[in-house]
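Exercise 7 asks you to align residues with tokens for two separate proteins.
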Amino acid sequence: MKKPLILGISGASGLIYAVRALKFLLEANNVVEIVASKAAYMVWQAEQGVRMPTEPEEQARFWREKTEVPEKGKINCHRWSDVGATIASGSFQTLGMLIVPCSMGTVAKLAMGLSSDLLERAADVQIKEGRFLVIVPRETPFSLIHLRNLTALAEAGVKIVPAIPAWYHNPKTIEDLVDFVVARTLDQLDIDCVPITRWQGY
């Protein structure tokens, strides 16, 4: 049985990155543990005009609808405040964790070793256990403080994949641009489940 992968969703703009990442992970029959920060709920409301459910079972149905993957894979959702959840412990084995998108507030807390909610605690666990943690920061421009915090995370072994798409695959849609970033994010975990055109040379 596959080990689960944690998908953290923070309150940064660009929630489409999380939706597309989850879609491809489910289509590849992965087990995904989802935790969205408190701010992510507000961003959903602001960007999509949609209220994300807080109850885990309702939220799982919400993600199934958004990804349009009704049956494949498995989703376990957690409340942002549930610091007693399975993913809060290093004894709960995982493939690693993605934070997509990752706000600069989340970056700062992780760089300082602070855990004020389940998302931050789960990420802190991945770092201390030496597991894979991949973040997709969605901010521009980066301030010196942002860069120093990102450097601290990189020095701790965190993989950083900024939400910067490529153009050599001749993207035609927003999804083409998003999927490139999602594919490069999952590459860090050696998961190849996003159908993109990879660089073939000149």
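Second protein for Exercise 7:
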Amino acid sequence: MNEKFTGIVLFIRPHREKDSLVKIFTREFGTKMFFVRGLQSPNHPLKKHLIPLTEHRYWGTINQQGLSFLKEGQTHNLFRSIQSDPFKQAHAAYLSQLVDASIDDNSEDQQLFDIFEAALCSLNEREDARPIQLLLQLKLLRRFGLRLNMNSCVVCGSSQKIEDFSMTHLGVLCHNHLDTDPNRMRLSYKQIKILQLFNEIKLNQLGHVSISDQSYKRIDELIFMIYHEQVGIKLKGESYLNQLYKVADQLKVSKIEGT
């Protein structure tokens, strides 16, 4: 059945000699896999409408089972800043993988689509992509059945003197109960406050934030650990992000030593 719909391209996979499989998160039908004949040809009419991490309006055949098919496309948002910035692109790619993992194929989820679309718009406009990633990572944990207890001690329920996070209990610990988890994360007071804030606010409430590189690294370690150990997923985009920032850190050191 031919339908009109809006979609964000998640990824393209070569298929046979010149054909491709394209996964698109559609607002109307959820994530769908499309077969596009001859897409690897340089002059294919749909090529400009099938760039990963861009948003378009499409007309095509939607099948409930198996592959769907595209006929026409109209560009809606190319997210040019994301496309031209390797760091933003890496963050957006990771988040696209995380969103894809959080939803069953062929399941309509307009709320998640709108969240992802808003995240890409914010990534495109902001200078630093890391706050957007952190906020979305925390929000999407709930779709995997996890809710972090960030407001009160998981042992006694007190909201006073919160000083650390426990992976064992998936929540914060107050001063009096730090010894209940010898392997607690040993986060700083500021890092706890960042997690508490980002766990509560919505994307449209996120203003300017100033977080040190050290705090981002420590919080990243925690969030990725939760996804690895509690959710059971480790995405390819995570490794690429880590490599990208590692190279950036090495370049900073080299520049300082060279001055």
